[in-house]
């Protein structure tokens, strides 16, 4: 099994080029791609894995975690991607405090969708195909604050309602949307996806 693990990414750079090409194709067709890298405190992650192992219905998932790419290889490759200035926007979300992380995620999605709608109105028909000069990103800005249960419930309902409005605005303007989630196993990706789909 270990031999298979180490060989899974032997054509990593080819795979990465294919992903970049696919994203570019979608963006040329006016898709809005929002990418999240979900990270988590290792102690919390191990707690998630332990809970998964204890549940007979999800035990198979924990076994899958143990048979995938080793953590050090995965983290090394992802660190290279996140630090690559040519990579399109990744938003890093620390899911150690799941509720605060969910609020950050909603705020980021809403910000990006508002920007996409504004760009739709300002879009010109001709393009020179050049990259924007002076490109900057807030991918490593990740202010994570603790929130109380009551504050979380209030904020999440407002953010979900606002996101529903923006999704409808995208639908009216025929602007497709893709959300991308990346992160280690048991980091909290599933929880984020679940909350997005709740409304």
Automatic annotation (TrEMBL):
GO molecular function, one term: transferase activity
Domain Polyphosphate kinase-2-related: 10-117, 147-198
Provenance organism: Staphylococcus nepalensis
Keywords: Transferase
One matching Pfam family: PPK2
Protein name as annotated: Phosphate--AMP phosphotransferase
